[in-house]
Amino acid sequence: MSTERYVVAITGASGSEYALRLIEILVEAGHEAYVVISAGGLVTLRHEVEPERLHQVLALATEVFDDADIGASIASGSFVFDGLAVVPCSMNSLARLNAHMADTLITRAAMVAMKERRRMVVVPREMPMATGTLEQMARLSGLGVIIAPASPGFYHRPQSMEELVEFVAAKTAACLGVRSWRLKAWKANQLCDT
Ligand SMILES: Cc1cc2nc3c(=O)[nH]c(=O)nc-3n(C[C@H](O)[C@H](O)[C@H](O)COP(=O)(O)O)c2cc1C
């Protein structure tokens, strides 16, 4: 299996643990994870995640970039990465992606993904959503961006927060083209089997 490169952009929506688990899944699958965290993403991470957990996961990354570092490798189309996930994606970042802004490393790397026609997944988290946000998501979807809302299913009867997180993180990985053995395919009779 060849090693692939994935960019994980963490922005300031709730659900930063989804990103941490996604990084683990990518690395467990033998891939490289390039991580960028927005200023808002840092704030939510500090609210939601223990510092030890954050450090432990960031240590798995091939590189962790500052969002202000627009000269970083992933800002250039010549640095080939296989996919990019904005997870979780704030409504602010969603609007900026929709506007094709490129003034931060996250928006620039996303621009690269779009112009180079690379796989890009956006995991928005907001409730409820403004009409403008829904329109922006529809537009990005039409441009080939996969919109994968952070909405875990319950049909597999999750027993813990970890299992709920796993659902969203593994689905996000699958949208990038990376399969996690933990994401069980639905079998119609699986509940009858137990
Ligand atoms: C604890 C916390 C939770 C937040 N949750 C969300 C959220 O779920 N969705 C969202 O769009 N914004 C949320 N915000 C607001 C964003 O962080 C804020 O709009 C920020 O400017 C986003 O910046 P960024 O897109 O550059 O990361 C939250 C902020 C805080 C402090």
Automatic annotation (TrEMBL):
Binding site for FMN: G12, A13, S14, S38, S90, M91, N92, S93, R125
Alphabetized SUPFAM superfamilies for the sequence: Homo-oligomeric flavin-containing Cys decarboxylases, HFCD
Domain Flavoprotein: 5-168
The enzyme's E.C. designation: 2.5.1.129
Taxonomic superkingdom: Bacteria
Keyword tags: Flavoprotein, FMN, Prenyltransferase, Transferase
Function: Flavin prenyltransferase that catalyzes the synthesis of the prenylated FMN cofactor (prenyl-FMN) for 4-hydroxy-3-polyprenylbenzoic acid decarboxylase UbiD. The prenyltransferase is metal-independent and links a dimethylallyl moiety from dimethylallyl monophosphate (DMAP) to the flavin N5 and C6 atoms of FMN.
Protein name, entry field: Flavin prenyltransferase UbiX
